[in-house]
């Protein structure tokens, strides 16, 4: 059996948007070509943006061009408008740095592992980078960010996502194999638990309780009727009648449901192996529990689909647990000091509100339907 996981997108923050407006907003420094021409907003020149230091990540220095790419990505995770823009800079700027730190830390772990992207991975990263460039080329130009820098960052993200997927698949294979060895030859089965209630049932289908917390019971006559009907229903089912039609006929379909188990479970947990001995169409004797009279009908005495699902479920629980531990380890690959890592004031000085308006003005964010 192959372990199935929901494959992550190859790049975690890809949003394809067509440029709509080319109206610039005043932000950053201004470059006057002459007095008769309209001023155009210029945040940074290409030389400036790749030389302004923002923060340290381990032994690496992060420059403004990289930080701005992540800031654009951060804004594009929200449905941005003029109405909510005022609150976003306080969210998007810290989030951009947080995403950047996480990506670079896991990237380091990935590279330390000796990961080797394939041609398809490289092509996919370039394709997503091209989409990003096309959707905000004018903004990238105003920020002085080169296409090469975008390709570089998207390649890092591709490697990170490939590494994460590879590790998750490795864990999936490992734990699936473990539980296949444990349950692969065990017989699973499905039974239908059919209940004829002896407690009062409310309009919501739930048992009615007394003030002391006990169930409100039906009258003695109603209890006897429930037992008689349970016996008749059981006889009809073992006589060949469809169990679903029978429970609907007696009006107990709302109180009955399918349950699954496997051979050896009951005895291992202090119970009886009554259900395990049933064959398809057979039923247990009618017994009574706190809710009413109950019997079980075997509907599938060799439920391989249930067995496979159970193996997948157990494997996925272990994968989630172990993967979370791994991811936490990867994030610690680079020691982080959120305040101490910052270099100078360039990042804090960046006007997040004005930057957001610039993105809106050029249709990079704020388009209908854009978001996560």
Question: How do you describe this structure in short?
Answer:
By secondary structure, the protein is α+β, with helices and mostly antiparallel strands. It is 47% helix and 11% strand.
Write up this protein.
It is a single chain. This protein has 372 residues and is α+β, with helices and mostly antiparallel strands. A 4-stranded antiparallel beta sheet has the order 6-5-8-7. 31% of the residues are buried. The two termini are 33 Å apart. It has helices at residues 46-49, 64-75, 89-112, 119-135, 137-143, 147-183, 220-238, 243-249, 265-268, 304-331, 346-349, 352-361; strands at residues 29-31, 40-42, 53-57, 60-63, 188-197, 257-262, 287-288, 292-300. It is elongated and about 90 Å long. Helix 3 crosses helix 6 (147-183).
Parts with pLDDT < 50 across at least 5 consecutive residues: 5-40, 368-372
Number of strands: 8
| Major beta-sheet overview | 4 strands, antiparallel
Structural class: alpha+beta
Amount of beta strand = 5-15%
Count of helical regions: 12
> Distance between termini?
33 Å
Rough shape?
A: elongated
- Cα-based radius of gyration, to the nearest Å: 31 Å
Order of helices and strands: EEHEEHHHHHEHHEHEEHHH
Estimate percent helicity.
40-55%
Q: What is the average per-residue confidence, as pLDDT, rounded to a whole number?
A: 87
